[in-house]
């Protein structure tokens, strides 16, 4: 990774697309960093998904980047608007940790695993193949995708660095 590259930042409950440099998000705990990539056009996109479903959203302005069921289609639409070819788009994702241990088996507290599952369902509904993932565990991650190659760089204090 070269320090002088363009860095496109994606905040929490945010998404972005690009054609140069790196797209980065930090602080992935139970959140999922989902990336889409068109290798032919070298276009990448990333969403920092906080929650599995927009059905729980309160009234008011809906943040489509916050929820798996709304962020994934929006990310795809933004890539297509830049000229990506739908049939070439592939996905990678990281995060979805279970950051805290809870007594009892309440599904509502399993946000990380539910985020991963919801992202996979959204990709399946859009017929986008998930070609790599680094999900689960109980640690945080920072991820970057290189627009030129589609390589997903993952860093964590506990597990070091890896590439997908």
UniProtKB/TrEMBL annotation:
GO terms for biological process: chemotaxis. Its EC number is 3.5.1.44. Keywords: Chemotaxis, Hydrolase. Transmembrane segments: none annotated. GO terms for molecular function: protein-glutamine glutaminase activity. Belongs to the CheD family. This is Probable chemoreceptor glutamine deamidase CheD.
């Amino acid at each position: 990774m070269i320090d002088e590259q363009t860095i496109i930042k994606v905040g929490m409950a945010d998404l972005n697309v690009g054609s140069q440099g790196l797209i980065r998000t930090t602080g992935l705990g139970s959140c999922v960093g989902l990336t889409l990539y068109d290798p032919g056009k070298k276009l990448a996109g990333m969403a920092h998904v906080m929650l599995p479903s927009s059905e729980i959203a309160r009234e008011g302005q809906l943040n489509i980047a916050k929820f798996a069921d709304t962020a994934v289609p929006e990310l795809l639409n933004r890539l297509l608007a830049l000229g990506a070819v739908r049939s070439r788009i592939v996905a990678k994702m990281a995060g979805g940790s279970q950051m805290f241990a809870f007594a009892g088996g309440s599904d509502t507290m399993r946000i990380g695993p539910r985020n991963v599952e919801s992202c996979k369902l959204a990709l399946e509904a859009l017929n986008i193949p998930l070609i790599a993932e680094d999900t689960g565990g109980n640690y945080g991650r920072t991820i970057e995708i290189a627009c030129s190659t589609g390589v997903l760089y993952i860093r964590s204090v506990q597990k070091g660095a890896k590439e997908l």
